[in-house]
User: Which sequence fits this backbone?
């Protein structure tokens, strides 16, 4: 299979445009959250509405200073983040900021490394508790199902049929228990 490079690999200008467009998407979402239009942002920035239109229509010309000004006036912060996503040839392009935002939100918006460590520990504990709850729920459900499906024959000649049916239910229960245990062990929750 021939791997093709992402369009942002054609030039620094293309990469810059992609990152800047991602920024304007975030800013546009923020304006929606604040119930602002572009004119409101223009007034906050003390620029014309035409200048704000340029920011959104041609993000490839944005400066870091302009991004910071827009962010701060919209009540946000801006950071520069480098990362290694295992794609040094840029076959997939830059990771969208929403991925980072979702992860940051998932870990309750840590503001430093210590808070992140605390939040990761709490997250792992929540997963442990949920897996234990799910495990118990699964066992209870399967046990209940096993009891409901247990076949008690009315006639002596039906005993072998009952044993086969009960063995099938017990096998299913055993497989389900093993699956839940394996799922539990997939997550390294010991840390």
Assistant:
């Amino acid at each position: 299979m021939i791997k093709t490079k992402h369009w942002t690999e054609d030039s620094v200008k293309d990469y810059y445009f992609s990152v800047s467009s991602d920024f304007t998407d975030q800013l546009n979402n923020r304006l929606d959250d604040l119930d602002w239009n572009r004119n409101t942002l223009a007034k906050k920035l003390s620029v014309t509405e035409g200048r704000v239109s340029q920011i959104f229509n041609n993000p490839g010309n944005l400066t870091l200073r302009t991004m910071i000004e827009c962010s701060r006036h919209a009540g946000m912060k801006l950071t520069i983040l480098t990362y290694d996503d295992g794609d040094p040839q840029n076959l997939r392009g830059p990771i969208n900021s929403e991925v980072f935002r979702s992860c940051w939100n998932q870990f309750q918006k840590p503001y430093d490394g210590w808070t992140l460590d605390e939040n990761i520990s709490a997250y792992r504990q929540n997963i442990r508790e949920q897996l234990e709850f799910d495990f118990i729920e699964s066992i209870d459900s399967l046990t209940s199902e096993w009891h409901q499906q247990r076949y008690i024959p009315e006639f002596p000649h039906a005993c072998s049929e009952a044993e086969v049916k009960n063995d099938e239910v017990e096998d299913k229960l055993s497989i389900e228990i093993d699956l839940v245990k394996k799922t539990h062990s997939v997550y390294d929750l010991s840390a």
